[in-house]
Amino acid sequence: MYEPANQTIQGKIMVGLSGGVDSAVAAMLLKRKGYKVHGLFMKNWEEDDDAEYCSAEKDLRVASAIADKLDIPLDTINFSTEYWNRVFEYFLSELKAGRTPNPDILCNREIKFQAFLDYALSKGAEKIATGHYACTKRYPDRIELRRAKDKGKDQTYFLHQVSGQALMKSLFPLCPYKKKEVRKMAQKAGLVNYNRPDSTGICFIGKRRFDDFLAGYFPNQPGEVRSVEGEIVGKHRGLMFHTIGQRKGLGIGGRKNSSEAPWFVTDKRLEDNVLIVAQGHDHPALFSIGLQAKSLHWITSTPPRQFRCTARTRHRQIDALCSVSLRDKHQCRVIFDEPMRAIAPGQSVVFYTGDICLGGGVIASPIKHQ
């Protein structure tokens, strides 16, 4: 059962309670340390409430049960307007432009570590806390964002756009724990969500297929699917339904005189609405020697104009050694030591030195040749 700590009350901390086990344990750990913990449940999506694709109503019930168990107050707030204006409209505009945006990164910057932080401070909280798997190291004049102990769950990739000022007012109680430890602590404390499955994917898409969701916002814009050699091999319903490296959902197969190797998206030509594909997971057309990035954000300070580090162009990816050249404070050129597969414009490239997350930017374009 849950056992409260007998410690001197520290400052007021507002914790984002989502209904998941991670945020619940984050709140529990802070209370055990003697903080005055206050929960906040954020609703960020209004559409399709009848079908409960995002399970907001169920999530709120679980969050309320956790708050009752921990004996902490729980506020609820609707950030749907902020989410639509600051995140979702950008998501749609990027898709329309043929890119593959990552709304979770923008949601962290604009909602979870801005709108939430502003609300918490207005209610007298000193800091906010979340159930993210990440760490910070504080210095008198700056803060570092570092990877969590659980490297498989580390979420610094999604947090690289959060400002240093916001991180200074944020706590990540799960920094030193692995996910299995978090579930064990929740079970031992009697938290009802100790074995609740992790949420996956983007909330506003939920359990629907991605293209089914997008069909409600984009009319079909059919076009040709061509091989890298120029042969017409199929039809697509719209470039926004596809991303670089995609295999599933292409509708290509069973062609005469064709090998059985699967097809992958290698490019999207907006000028003539053509989807380019190639056969084989390791087809040369899928690889790039580097990339151009824009909208750079550095957490601690702007690095030298040229530097070495490691980088990721997707969340679950092994770090790749690279050389970075800053063109200005907003743009850079990245050349990898080894070619990288399926670099998708609109996704983010995030830079690291060891466990320190330096920052990152939005991929503008891959670099195919020197």
Cα end-to-end separation = 61 Å
Structural class of the secondary elements? alpha/beta
Per DSSP E runs of 2 or more residues, the count of β-strands stands at: 17
* Fraction of helical residues: 10-25%
CATH class of the largest domain: Alpha Beta
In round numbers, the mean pLDDT is 92
Biggest sheet, open or closed, and with what strands and sense?
A: 6 strands, antiparallel, barrel
Poorly predicted runs are: none
Work out the oligomeric state of the chains in this entry: single chain
Say what the CATH topology of the largest domain is: Rossmann fold
DSSP helical segment count: 8
Strand content: 25-35%
What Rg do the Cα atoms give? 22 Å
Number of domains: 3
Order of helices and strands: EHEHEHHEEEHHEHHEEEEEEEEEE
> Looking across the biggest beta sheet, what order are the strands in?
12-15-14-13-16-17
State the CATH superfamily name of the largest domain.
Answer: HUPs
